[in-house]
Amino acid sequence: MKKNKSKAQATGLLYAQSGGVTAAINSSAKGALEAAVAADRGRVLAGSNGILGVLEEELVDVRACGSRQLAQLRNLPGGAFGSCRYKLPDPHQDPRPYQRIADVFRAHQIGSFLYNGGNDSQDTTSKIAAFCKSAGVPVACVGIPKTIDNDLVRTDCCPGFGSAAKYIATSVAECALDVASMARTSTKLFVIEVMGRDAGWLTAAAGLAGEADSPIMLLLPEVPFAATKFVRAIRQRVSQHGYCIVACSEGVRNARGELLASRGGADAFAHVQLGGAGSVVAQLAKEKLGLKYHLAIADYMQRAARHLASRTDLDQAEALGKAAAQWALAGHGGVMASVRRLADSPYRWKVEAVPLASVANRVRQVPKTFISADGFSITAAARRYMQPLISGEDWPPFRAGLPVHRLPRRRLVARRLGAWKRK
Amino acid sequence: MKKNKSKAQATGLLYAQSGGVTAAINSSAKGALEAAVAADRGRVLAGSNGILGVLEEELVDVRACGSRQLAQLRNLPGGAFGSCRYKLPDPHQDPRPYQRIADVFRAHQIGSFLYNGGNDSQDTTSKIAAFCKSAGVPVACVGIPKTIDNDLVRTDCCPGFGSAAKYIATSVAECALDVASMARTSTKLFVIEVMGRDAGWLTAAAGLAGEADSPIMLLLPEVPFAATKFVRAIRQRVSQHGYCIVACSEGVRNARGELLASRGGADAFAHVQLGGAGSVVAQLAKEKLGLKYHLAIADYMQRAARHLASRTDLDQAEALGKAAAQWALAGHGGVMASVRRLADSPYRWKVEAVPLASVANRVRQVPKTFISADGFSITAAARRYMQPLISGEDWPPFRAGLPVHRLPRRRLVARRLGAWKRK
What we know:
Radius of gyration of chain A: 23 Å
Order of helices and strands of chain A: EEHEHEHHEHEHEHEHEHEHHEEEHEE
Helix content of chain A: 25-40%
Largest sheet of chain A: 7 strands, mixed
Oligomer: homodimer
Distance between the termini of chain A: 36 Å
């Protein structure tokens, strides 16, 4: 951790959400913002729609939310203050956005910046920190991890993953019972398409829904898809169990590294941004084996399903947010808050700081030791790793049959700069 | 209700599940089978894989399950004893299956037959009752309704619907928060395809996730799809809210009555049995408005999601099962157990018997008074009707992060007849 000693750190804290949201990201917001309010040092702000709100000086006054609204963030899916997909340019190519961010930090006396995102975002945080320092605006920048993809390095897991994994594993277990009870005369193949472009962690979580010898089959991006082997494996499972459940990652690729979603019959459909791999493999099984199939695409449901969040995940998300705020306020920047596993069972973990630079732009795939020899299942080691992450329930309050979703007040602080022109 | 007086009613009771299962069908099994065991009259059996188990004389000895397993049925999705899609022929065309069923009833001293299914099944129950009577095997046949489609007449609602509706409404509310928080720079259109071939009840339930003026838009089978009007409505919502959520029934049809799923761009995809309407409308919006979209297909997840079942639904399912068993054991057949609504708020209801013949083969669609003038939303009357049906939670037990699913023991009773030849 670097401590900025050259110039007094400003007292304000700014928190922003970045990239795809999760069922747990608002728990990190809760942890960070409650800690910042409790520290009672200076302004506590949140970027409206993530880094865009910083560029456009649309900054939410977090104190105006009050303690009750902050506490309720834990129950809220989506991004409470808005997130965005907005890639900052290389600062050497185009320093203007960085200059603007530094200006906004200075204008609002921001000395602590918390960026809650995935691996791209951790890189951005590093760049912002470096730029601000060079511009004479010392800011302690701390990353808070977040991604249902679970693909950040240097942390036991990523907030959002445990909840999405619990949702996928539960849904697969429930659907497997449905299919099993009808398979004699109806659907024998059920395919569920799961998110995860480069890493198959969420698809692997579907494996938790059954034992080693179950009819559940996984198609991971880490394992090149081979049609003949796939068809043979389905035939074997249908013959043994009467049915087969396939959890198919949207990022499955063939041996040439091409996404299944962009090949053959799926071309006409051309949903590269949506997946499509599930329909490709289902169609293939139908053609080769004549099996009636059903297809589900979990899509945003899997990352928004706060109703089925993992308590462990929410706890970790909150603890990471809290630690990040405390470190930043103490002037310790250049780090990401991460989870370190101390024991599998019972699961014990602690929060620690890892250098942002060691996390940025890297992807952690499902390791070989977690994948069975045939590539279609998970190993006992994978179960040991994932099982604690989906553990514990945290049912949100319901009223009139639906979860109570209370958005925090988004009162913006007064602007102190001119309008930001994106060019 | 008809009471068989001509010949003494045999003491055994046989329960069977029929057609697509739901999150609540096992609650009906619990209600029926616990009541039958408590009556302590004779054998209590369940068809293995529905009516197929009756034809093939694969009959589960329910008493061998024990009271604990029967109580746990409430927590189990799928069909605990197996269901099937198996259409019995017209008895005048081919009486053989009916003869066989009557033979099985006689061989196992069955005097009460409970058939747990949708509108086809209620018709089948009538036919079985009539045939048995003519064959000198008086059996009190009672129907227990079940279908997530909620399309049976003569009942306030169908067990299974409330839970699936709660799941759809909750999922849409959660996804709407996700989309709202990212819409500025990411997905502006989210389409979720919902089950319901002929009736749009489940799609209508998505409307519960937002107020009247929300960005949620419904495409019901009851409203002919008009492309121009649809595109205009999406544009208006995106302009007003920044995003649009479309809940699209798999059964949406154009003005000529053709399923959207079997038209144009979806032909190559050719998933008539799977839907496909969602991808057709999403593609259309993308072409006409250039909107980035995401597509979810809830498929079996929506009918298997016991983890998010409606307590009201489970209670009704159980009460209907219990009443059906009690009526049948008392010799009152030819009826279906149904729910009668006494008051909307607080919701009050009672179980009553309606003639099987008045239910068979009829479909109840969403009435015009429940659909807004533009066809894309639900009215206050629809909310008053649906809201109580999704109310109350009934979280199943979880262990190690996953719901505990205990299948009942399926010990078969000894065969008393020769093998059934399907011809």
